[in-house]
Specification:
Structural class: mainly alpha
CATH superfamily of the largest domain: MFS general substrate transporter like domains
Largest sheet: none
Order of helices and strands: HHHHHHHHHHHHHHHH
Number of domains: 2
CATH architecture of the largest domain: Up-down Bundle
Distance between the termini: 11 Å
Radius of gyration: 22 Å
CATH class of the largest domain: Mainly Alpha
CATH topology of the largest domain: Growth Hormone, Chain: A
Shape: globular
Helix content: over 70%
Length: 442
């Protein structure tokens, strides 16, 4: 079979239109797992344990829907194409579920949370997997893939800033008014369909490089035999776990260790704002050192900068703000570079297997992200409890508990990051190897 011509370098305008849907999509995740539990508990008198059980069940459903939608994203096609069509068909469910969950009626209860929370999780997975696969296949160039990823992740960070700001600007005190979560509901319900339609209209369907279709057994066999993917996946899991640890402990570190209640919002905002600036910095660095080296350098710097947080204590909130800005810049590298490396890894699989299966690979990517979050919560909180730390409001903490909090927050993440650096520093799939793979595909 004669392969199609290589994809051209994507213009900034094309990258912009592709990235726009990431803005409302990013406004879904943070409210779902950070604001929704406390809001439903306070507004509808639902026990936190019951809410936690529902959210855990939704996570278990994710374990089924991630590989299912990854497989479907590589199989289903329509008049708009394999990626664009499957992506566009998911948007009505995602937009409706977000609207219903974030702006619940006055008589909402646990059943409403379970129904629309599950619908939103399914819809968001259905939307995200073909969307990220679309971006991975949009360009063939080693460095151009970083640009496409950077545009998407930059939009994701802006959406995260909106998700942090809008609920608190709108207020969360009353459920029978146009509260802060309702702002998010309207934003997603209106902007997501418009952004998705604009992207499908203005951004082309990527070339499908498949020359055969694999059975499920063959597909899994090739995935397990893709050594660059296994190495990248291990590094991504380790680094994601390292990032999830301080994310899980952030509020406790600020309020208990630094004794700075009220600083959580401004510090988080400065962190994500710095990450927006870090994305173009990651593009610039990777163009000079290569993607895997740029990512490794950023992780090394993050270890050095973040280690200082373990030495901070009461009254050091201003110093911690500087650390948040510095590590936020480096977060831009974590967001922009690994997905661009993943696109190269998929090339390796396509050459060997004959089928381009970006959907399945990004489903594995999604599973790794969620596994890292689960590992963080399952390891860190029991260790904090063993040190005598109390999560009760206004609880008095012992010196031992505060020391353990500082060590877990700042120093424990260094170990998995160092392991990730060791895996990626001599990563075999560099620019020269990627060009060789593209030649074979052509």
């Amino acid at each position: 079979m004669t392969q199609p011509a290589p994809q051209p370098r994507q213009s900034a305008v094309t990258c912009f239109y592709y990235a726009v849907p990431a803005l409302p999509m990013a406004a879904i995740a943070l409210p779902l797992y950070i604001i929704v539990p406390s809001f439903y508990a306070a507004a509808f008198a639902i026990p936190l344990a019951a809410i936690g059980g529902v959210l855990l069940a939704i996570r278990l459903i994710d374990a089924v829907t991630d590989p299912l939608f990854g497989w479907l994203a590589d199989r289903v096609t329509c008049r708009y194409g394999r990626r664009r069509g499957f992506f566009l068909s998911s948007v009505p469910l995602t937009a409706l579920a977000a609207f219903m969950l974030f702006w619940p009626p006055a008589d909402a209860g646990l059943a409403h949370l379970a129904l629309w929370g599950t619908a939103l999780s399914i819809g968001a997975t259905w939307t995200l997997l073909p969307y990220t696969a679309w971006g991975a296949e949009l360009s063939d160039g080693y460095h151009d893939r970083v640009r496409v990823s950077a545009w998407r992740e930059g939009a994701t960070l802006v959406g995260s800033l909106l998700a942090i700001s809008l609920p608190f600007v709108g207020g969360l005190e009353r459920a029978d008014a146009f509260h802060g979560l309702a702002w998010i509901a309207v934003f997603v319900a209106v902007i997501l369909p418009l952004a998705a339609g604009l992207a499908v209209w203005r951004v082309q369907e990527p070339v499908d490089r498949s020359v055969r279709r694999l059975s499920l057994r063959e597909s899994l066999s090739h995935l397990a035999g893709n050594r660059p993917f296994l190495r990248l996946a291990a590094a991504f899991l380790l680094n994601s776990f390292a990032n999830a640890i301080p994310a899980s402990l952030f509020i406790y570190f600020v309020t208990a260790r630094l004794d700075a209640p009220g600083w959580e919002g401004p510090l988080l905002f400065s962190y994500f704002l710095a990450a927006v600036a870090g994305v173009p910095l990651a593009v610039w660095t990777s163009a000079r050192t290569g993607k895997h080296r740029a990512w490794s350098i950023s992780m090394t710097l993050a270890c050095l900068v973040f280690s200082g947080a373990g030495l901070l204590g009461e009254g050091d909130a201003a110093i911690f703000a500087v650390i948040c800005v510095a590590t936020g810049l480096l977060l831009g590298y974590d967001l922009a570079l690994p997905p661009a490396i993943q696109a190269d890894v998929i090339d390796n699989d396509t050459v060997r297997s004959g089928e381009q299966r970006s959907g399945l690979y990004f489903a594995a990517w999604s599973f790794i992200t969620k596994l890292a979050l689960a590992l963080s919560a399952g390891i860190v909180f029991p260790l904090l409890g063993l040190a005598g730390f109390s999560t009760a409001p206004a609880a008095s903490q012992s010196a031992t508990a505060l020391q353990a909090l500082g060590a877990l927050y700042a120093w424990l993440p260094i170990l998995p990051k160092l392991a990730a650096i060791a895996l990626m520093w001599r990563f075999s799939l560099d620019e020269a190897e990627q060009k060789r793979l593209r030649t074979l595909l052509a």
